[in-house]
Design brief:
Number of helices: 5
Number of strands: 31
Mean pLDDT: 88
Oligomer: single chain
Distance between the termini: 28 Å
Helix content: under 10%
Largest sheet: 6 strands, mixed
Low-confidence stretches: 1-19
Radius of gyration: 24 Å
Strand order of the largest sheet: 1-8-7-4-5-6
Strand content: 35-45%
C-alpha cells in the first residue's frame, strides 16, 4: 500500500498513522511460539497459563518514537519503562509478568537490531534485559503502526498499552482477569446489536461468556435488566474448559429510546467482579432545527466527504472534500489535516429519518491520521449535545452509519430542566475532566461514561445534589485516548456531552 510505506519513510509511521488495531478486550485465539535472539523458545499460552501477564512491544528498528520509548535517556518521559518493568516484576524480580521486544517489521533483517551500519545505527539489544526477537507477528494483532505495545492477560484478552511508565503498565496488568474459584462464569464483551432505528427495533442481544473457574462450566443463567427491571432470562448450557469462550445469543428485546441495559450472571458464581456488563442502546439522535456536523479529518482530508440522506435517499446536507496538502503526491497534510471542520446545517422541518454517510475517494477510509479528538470520523451536535458519533477509520470507499438521525417537524426536544451553565474543561483532556454547572433545584444525580460503541465504562452516583453551583471532577486516566460520551442524569432528564482524551 502506498500510504503506510510513504508515511513510514517520512514520519517513522507512529507520528501520523492511526488505523484499526484489534479491539481492546479481544481474545488471542492462536498461540504465539517464537525463538528469541539468543535461541530460546517462548510459548505465550504457557506463560499465560502460569497466571502471568505478557507485555509485548511490537516495534520497527527504524522507528524513532519506538527507539525513544525503548531507550533510557532519549528524552522520552517514559524512556526505558519496559526495562524497569521487567527488572522489577519479571523473572528476576517478583516474577509476576513477562516482557518481550519484538521487531515486527517483515522487511527488517535481524542484523539491523544490533546497530552498526543499520538504518540509524541504533543498538536495540545491548542493555535490554528482556528477550528480543525478530518475528513477523504483527498480523495477529492487526498491527497498523509502530510502536504497538500490548498486554495479554492470563484469560487471553488483549489491550493496547501505549507508551506508558513502568508503574502505569504494572497497575494495568493488575486489572487482568485470571482463573479464580471453581465455578466462575465471566462476561467479557457485548457482541449484540446496540443501535435502534427511528421507529424502535427488536435488537438481538449476545455476549462473550468465558469460563474463569477451575472446573468445567456446564451451565449458567444470564439476565438482562433495564432500570433494575429484569426483562430477559437465558439458561445457557454447554461445556467450557478453563479459559474457553462461547458467544451466547440471549434472544431479542424491543427498544424505542436510548437505554442502559445491564447483563449479569444470575446463577452460582464464586467471583462476582467479572459477572456484569453494561451496554448503552443508542436510539436515533433527535436532530430538529439547527445541528452542527463536526468532521474530524485524517492526514488525507481531500479524500473525505460526507452526506446526510433521508429515507428516500435524497441528500439533505453534505460537505467535503477538504483542502489537500503538499506533504506527498496524494495530498497529505495541509491546513485541513488532523483537524475539525464544522458545518452548521438546518434540518428539514418534517418528520423523517436520516442516514449519515462518509465517503473516501481513495478507498482506505479515514484510517491514516492522528486527530486530536482521538479518532477520525463525524460527530453531530444539537444545542451543544452530542447526538451521533461515527468512527470513520475502518471502511473503504463508503460507510453508511448504523446510527440514525430523526426529525419530528414542529416538535422540539426539551433541554435538561434541572441544570444550567454546563461547562466542561479541559476538553480535549489528558485524563482529568472538570464538570461545572448549576443545579436549578435539588435532584438525585448520576453520571455514566460511554465509549463510542455504547459500552458503559464508568458509572458514578452523585446522590441528591443541592440547588446552586457545583464542580465535579472525572478521573479518566485509566482509559485509552479517544472519544467518550458523558451523560448526566438529573431527575427524569439527561444531558450528554463528549470528552476527547488525547494522551
Amino acid at each position: 500500500m502506498k500510504k503506510p510505506l510513504l508515511i513510514a519513510l517520512m514520519f517513522s509511521l507512529s507520528s501520523v498513522l492511526s488505523t484499526a488495531q484489534i479491539a481492546d478486550g479481544s481474545l488471542l485465539t492462536q498461540n504465539i511460539i517464537f525463538t528469541d535472539l539468543n535461541g530460546n523458545q517462548h510459548d505465550v499460552f504457557a506463560l499465560l497459563d502460569e497466571g502471568k501477564t505478557v507485555v509485548m512491544d511490537l516495534f520497527a528498528e527504524w522507528c524513532a518514537p519506538c527507539w525513544n520509548y525503548h531507550n533510557t535517556g532519549t528524552g522520552h518521559p517514559n524512556g526505558g519503562a519496559l526495562k524497569t518493568l521487567y527488572n522489577l516484576y519479571g523473572p528476576d524480580g517478583t516474577d509476576e509478568l513477562m516482557v518481550f521486544g519484538i521487531e515486527s517489521d517483515p522487511s527488517t533483517p535481524e542484523a539491523l537490531m544490533y546497530g552498526g551500519a543499520g538504518t540509524n545505527g541504533w543498538d536495540w539489544v545491548t542493555g535490554t534485559p528482556y528477550p528480543m526477537a525478530n518475528v513477523n507477528i504483527g498480523n495477529i494483532f492487526s498491527q497498523g503502526y509502530y510502536p504497538y505495545i500490548v498486554r495479554i492477560c492470563p484469560n487471553r484478552q488483549i489491550f493496547e498499552l501505549g507508551q506508558e511508565s513502568a508503574q502505569t503498565v504494572y497497575e494495568l496488568t493488575n486489572e487482568c482477569l485470571s482463573a479464580q474459584g471453581e465455578v466462575n462464569p465471566a462476561l467479557l464483551n457485548y457482541t449484540g446489536q446496540s443501535f435502534v432505528g427511528c421507529e424502535g427495533a427488536d435488537l438481538n442481544l449476545s455476549v462473550q461468556l468465558q469460563n474463569l473457574g477451575n472446573s468445567t462450566l456446564t451451565s449458567t443463567t444470564l439476565e438482562v435488566l433495564v432500570d433494575n427491571e429484569s426483562l430477559l432470562t437465558y439458561e445457557w448450557s454447554g461445556s467450557l474448559e478453563i479459559y474457553q469462550v462461547a458467544n451466547v445469543n440471549l434472544g431479542s428485546l424491543f427498544f424505542e429510546t436510548s437505554e442502559t441495559m445491564t447483563i449479569q450472571i444470575a446463577s452460582q458464581d464464586d467471583f462476582q467482579d467479572d459477572s456484569t456488563l453494561e451496554q448503552l442502546v443508542i436510539a436515533a439522535g433527535q436532530a430538529d432545527g439547527e445541528i452542527e456536523v463536526h468532521v474530524y479529518t485524517d492526514f488525507y482530508p481531500s479524500e473525505t466527504s460526507w452526506q446526510i440522506r433521508n429515507s428516500s435517499n435524497q441528500i439533505v446536507a453534505s460537505g467535503g472534500p477538504y483542502q489537500a496538502g503538499t506533504a506527498d503526491q496524494w495530498g497529505g497534510g495541509g491546513p485541513d489535516a488532523n483537524t475539525t471542520k464544522i458545518h452548521v446545517v438546518e434540518m428539514p422541518n418534517v418528520e423523517a429519518c436520516y442516514n449519515i454517510r462518509i465517503l473516501d475517494s481513495y478507498g482506505d477510509g479515514m484510517s491514516l491520521g492522528n486527530n486530536p479528538m482521538g479518532f477520525s470520523g463525524i460527530e453531530v451536535f444539537r444545542m451543544g449535545e452530542s447526538i451521533a458519533v461515527v468512527n470513520g477509520e475502518t471502511f473503504t470507499t463508503t460507510l453508511n452509519a448504523t446510527q440514525r438521525l430523526k426529525t419530528a417537524g414542529s416538535v422540539s426536544v426539551q433541554d435538561n430542566a434541572f441544570i444550567s451553565g454546563l461547562s466542561v474543561f479541559p476538553n480535549p483532556s489528558n485524563g482529568i475532566v472538570n464538570v461545572e454547572f448549576s443545579m436549578l433545584n435539588s435532584q438525585n444525580t448520576q453520571i455514566h461514561v460511554y465509549d463510542i460503541t455504547g459500552k458503559v465504562i464508568l458509572s458514578e452516583g452523585w446522590g441528591m445534589m443541592a440547588e446552586g453551583y457545583t464542580l465535579k471532577q472525572l478521573d479518566l486516566n485509566s482509559f485509552q485516548k479517544g472519544l467518550y460520551i458523558v451523560n448526566i442524569t438529573t431527575g427524569d432528564t439527561s444531558t450528554a456531552f463528549r470528552v476527547a482524551l488525547v494522551k
